[in-house]
Design goal:
CATH architecture of the largest domain: Up-down Bundle
Pfam families: MFS_1, Sacchrp_dh_NADP
Organism: Aspergillus novoparasiticus
Radius of gyration: 32 Å
Helix content: 55-70%
Shape: elongated
Protein name: Major facilitator superfamily domain-containing protein
CATH superfamily of the largest domain: MFS general substrate transporter like domains
Strand content: 5-15%
Strand order of the largest sheet: 3-2-1-4-5-6-13
Oligomer: single chain
Subcellular location: Membrane
Number of helices: 39
Low-confidence stretches: 428-435, 569-594, 596-601
Membrane topology: Multi-pass membrane protein
CATH class of the largest domain: Mainly Alpha
Length: 912
């Protein structure tokens, strides 16, 4: 290739997300005498990009601008004008082939950042030989997708060869941690592959040796994957930990095995028995199983064209991605364990660590820029010695490693010490521990178990009554109080939420928490011994008061026993454990220790009482009480136009207004400071939590009525049929906790929940007396999954974005919405159901009015109706229930406001 060409380098696709980052890196990092141009189809965008470069370094000349269409004639002309083309035009399956072919035909070096193996396999088949003949060095997949795995393997093999004088056997590379999302272009490339290729074609194209110029010897023993890994996804690798399947793994495996095939006849060969695997590090075996099973259930969704059409609308457009402010604190780290291929045991191993303290897409820009530097100004790499062809980043060897290190990429290699028992073999590389001294071992685990038990007791108390509602109404001979069985509990839970948030801020966390647990148990005793509906409601109210303190306390304790990035998975686990209440009290009393130093500890008792803002609580609690009484009376006991109902709504509005004025006057000393209310994440989290919990509770509250009255199931059978919705929620909670802890981001799970919830609730409105059991399980399970997959997102957002001083108050707002929403909307649902039922049965059962239904209950209605008319009555009850569930559909749709408004931050991100 002639060195007298007009340009050293042309960057094609410069105005896309990766293209802009690459342009910026080349401009600031490559030599001043570089002759280069940026190319694309939109001249205006190219000029704007060129102008944006100048403030960074005005002493440099901006790149030339070339407008080019993606056809053979113009791309051939472009390739003849430059020594090297960097292509960031994707999806490559649609837009990359002509550029690749033009470079191969014209002896122009080529780099790209694709991860599209089926397309690359086709390009190798067509143009590898052509590139060798023209001297074109073509290195695709030169970005975050493949370079870390490819270079980690190369470094490990070199270390084994030099220090152990051996070939390399098995190599396991894992993403040890990553902070960063995907761009619109990456998503478009993935979706396009499924649009244009069959599953069989994709499977064959991603076979381990699909890109390799040579296949493994038939004499090489095949290492079988264990049944535990295949079925449950369980794999533990020493020095790496628990592993999960990596979605990008097949791409890495194909590229690394191509490197093996290319280098096998050189002095840097890996070895005949070389075998590469790519993984994703995950927390614990339970997380690995859930990741695996969740992937098996969710992955097939991408095969559905409507899902593929929907995903881009929920994400960045192709060419778009997160802004500079959102990615500046991102990072990633790869780890590698490579075995020497020797008969001795234990086998000698090399360990590799690669880390970059910036976004993966910025790393791609660095990888492309430094590879370009080597291709243009070096001539002694294996890539140059091959003389051309479709190669890999590993063929750039030592020069590439040195350049990436100079650009800020940490790459360390060392021998494994088999005697070493510590958690991290890279001791010297691990940053000093600047986190608080969190509890560990038995003390930590028993505290977590106690929190799980306490939360699940409260969760059961909030929801288990729903299954017994038909029987309770028959026992007390009233339907009028049904709404209060839930609302009394929810009212006290949400009304005292801000008060408890202040108590945990000002007083001993342990003492307040223990007191809350005692109140909860007293309320449970009152419910168990209630002789009347009124007494039962009082017990529910006392229990709700105790649960308000427990709920706020669990998250206050969690903040003091776990670092931020590990809280989501444990918050999810807290929702699925089995209860033994009194044991939990003992565990918390003996094992949890209060934080040693808090600014509030210096306040006197009188100052703490003033900080509690008791006046605001005396305004807030009666206002909510007036609201709930009005909702329970309106349309049933009294018409909406009745003076009593209107008066209660007026009392609610007046007291709430005075409460808000008082909050504004008190400023930062208020029970709920306005700086908390105005926070974007608090608003979004409140909307999402309120609507999510309300949707699932309305469904759960009336499902037992459907099972027991419409389907004539017993209460115990009804309880069994509630399992799908609860199991779906448990699975969603765990997947979100694990996913947030692993990837850092909570917002995608909230968006997924906003998609699933209205669909599931809509499907449940199709229930009728003859709906199949399979449909009941599927629809209710999806509803639970939709409610669970995003449920912990708002709490993760609050803990990520608010300061430690505001954390309890922010969590208090979320927990308030979590309790207030169901209390309000179950009362509204009760009004809808009662009025729907009375209007439908008025002609069948003479004298049936909302007031009569409220006073007698559904059991008495059944006794009033002749058996020959019961089918008609049953259908009417069914239709009334499904119309009530339209409220859940509306609530599910409303959650999208919160999920899209929430800030995209990561629990792994460094907080300022």
């Amino acid at each position: 290739m002639s060195s007298r060409r007009e340009y050293d380098l042309i960057l094609l696709g410069a105005t896309g997300y990766t293209g802009m980052l690459t342009t910026q890196y080349i401009f600031k990092s490559l030599p001043l005498d570089l002759k280069w141009a940026i190319a694309g189809r939109n001249k205006g965008k190219l000029e704007q990009l060129a102008r944006s470069l100048m403030p960074e370094n005005s002493s440099r000349q901006p790149p030339d601008i070339l407008v080019v269409n993606l056809n053979n004639k113009e791309l051939d002309g472009l390739a003849k004008r430059t020594r090297l083309v960097i292509s960031t035009v994707g999806p490559f399956l649609l837009y990359g082939s002509e550029t690749f072919a033009a470079c191969a035909r014209n002896g122009t070096h080529y780099l790209d950042c694709n991860g599209e193996i089926p397309w690359l396999k086709n390009m190798i088949h067509q143009y590898d030989k052509v590139a060798k003949e023209t001297g074109s060095i073509m290195i695709p997949c030169c970005g975050f997708d493949c370079v870390p795995s490819d270079l980690s393997t190369w470094l490990a093999a070199r270390y084994i060869r030099r220090h152990f004088n051996a070939q390399t056997g098995r190599v396991d590379v894992c993403i040890h941690g990553v902070q960063g999302g995907i761009s619109g272009g990456t998503l478009a490339s993935v979706l396009q592959a499924f649009e244009l290729h069959s599953l069989r074609h994709l499977y064959n194209a991603h076979a381990p040796y699909s890109l390799s110029p040579r296949q493994p010897s038939p004499t090489v023993p095949i290492k079988r994957t264990s049944i535990w890994t295949k079925v449950l996804g369980l794999l533990w690798i020493k020095r790496l930990g628990w592993m999960a399947y990596q979605p990008q793994g097949p791409v890495d495996r194909a590229i690394v095995h191509r490197s093996w095939g290319l280098l096998e006849s050189t002095t840097v060969a890996y070895g005949h028995n070389f075998d590469f695997h790519a993984w994703f590090k995950i927390w614990g075996p339970v997380a690995a199983i859930l990741w695996h099973l969740g992937g098996l259930m969710l992955a097939p969704l991408i095969l559905l064209r409507p899902v593929r059409k929907l995903l881009p609308k929920l994400w960045y457009e192709p060419g778009g991605g997160a802004g500079q402010g959102k990615i500046e604190n991102n990072w990633f780290e790869y780890r590698c364990v490579a075995e020497a291929d020797t008969p001795t045991k234990p086998k000698q191993k090399a360990l590799v660590r690669m880390r970059y303290e910036s976004d993966p897409y910025i790393f791609t820009a660095v990888a492309l820029g430094e590879a370009a530097r080597i291709l243009l100004w070096q001539n002694d790499t294996w890539a140059h010695k091959f003389g051309g062809g479709v190669l890999t980043s590993a063929t750039l060897g030592d020069h590439y490693v040195s350049r990436l290190r100079a650009a800020g990429v940490t790459m360390e290699v060392q021998a494994d010490d088999p005697v070493y028992k510590g958690k991290d073999p890279f001791i010297k590389s691990t940053p000093p521990d600047t986190e608080p001294n969190y509890p560990t071992g038995t003390k930590f685990w028993f505290t977590v178990i106690a929190l799980c038990v306490i939360l699940i007791l409260g969760g059961l108390d909030a929801n288990i009554v729903a299954t017994a509602v038909p029987s309770i109404t028959n026992h007390f001979h009233t339907l009028a109080d049904v709404g209060w069985y839930s609302s009394a509990f929810r009212l006290c839970t949400c009304a005292f939420q801000f008060g408890f948030a202040k108590l945990y801020t000002l007083f001993s966390i342990k003492i307040v928490f223990m007191t809350s647990n005692v109140i909860f148990l007293v309320g449970s005793v009152l419910c168990a011994t209630a002789a009347s509906s009124t007494m039962f409601i009082v017990g529910r109210a006392v229990t709700g008061l105790g649960f308000a303190g427990e709920l706020a306390g669990c998250f206050a304790v969690l903040a003091h026993i776990l670092p931020l990035n590990r809280r989501p998975v444990f918050a999810g686990l807290m929702a699925i454990n089995l209860p033994i209440g009194t044991v939990s009290l003992a565990v918390m009393f003996f094992l949890f220790s209060d934080p040693r130093t808090r600014q509030e500890d210096d306040l006197t008792l009188a100052q703490k009482i003033r900080e509690l803002d008791l006046v605001s609580n005396c305004l807030f609690i009666p206002s909510l009480t007036a609201l709930f009484i009005a909702l329970s009376w309106a349309g049933t006991k009294y018409p909406w136009s009745d003076g009593k109902v209107i008066g209660l709504f007026v009392v609610f509005a007046v007291l709430l207004t005075v409460f808000l004025i008082n909050q504004y006057r008190r400023g930062d000393s208020a029970a709920l400071p306005f700086r908390i209310i105005k926070n974007r994440n608090v608003i979004a989290g409140f909307i999402f939590t309120t609507c999510t919990n309300s949707m699932t509770n309305v469904l759960e509250w009336y499902l037992p009525t459907y099972y027991q009255v419409v389907r004539s199931r017993s209460p115990s059978e009804s309880g069994y049929l509630m399992i799908p919705i609860l199991a779906g929620m448990m699975l969603g909670l765990l997947l979100q906790g694990i996913g947030t802890t692993t990837f850092g981001y909570y917002a995608p799970f909230m968006v997924l929940g906003s998609v699933c919830m209205p669909i599931a609730a809509g499907l449940m409105t199709t229930y009728n007396p003859h709906t199949s059991l399979a449909q009941i399980i599927l629809y209710s399970g999806l509803a639970g999954f939709g409610g669970g997959i995003g449920f912990q997102g708002p709490q993760a957002a609050i803990q990520t974005t608010l300061s430690a001083a505001d954390l309890n108050l922010g969590i208090g707002v979320i927990l308030f919405g979590q309790s207030m929403g169901p209390a309000v909307f179950i009362a509204i649902a009760q009004v809808i159901f009662t009025n729907q039922l009375s209007s439908r049965l008025e002609g069948v059962v003479p004298g049936l009015t909302p007031a009569y239904i409220a006073e007698r209950g559904l059991g008495d209605i059944k006794n009033m109706v002749p058996m020959q008319q019961w089918d008609e009555v049953s259908r009417s009850i069914d239709r009334s229930l499904t119309r009530t569930w339209y409220l859940s559909v509306a609530l599910g749709c409303t959650t999208v406001v919160g999920s899209l408004l929430i800030e995209w931050r990561s629990v792994k991100q460094k907080q300022s």
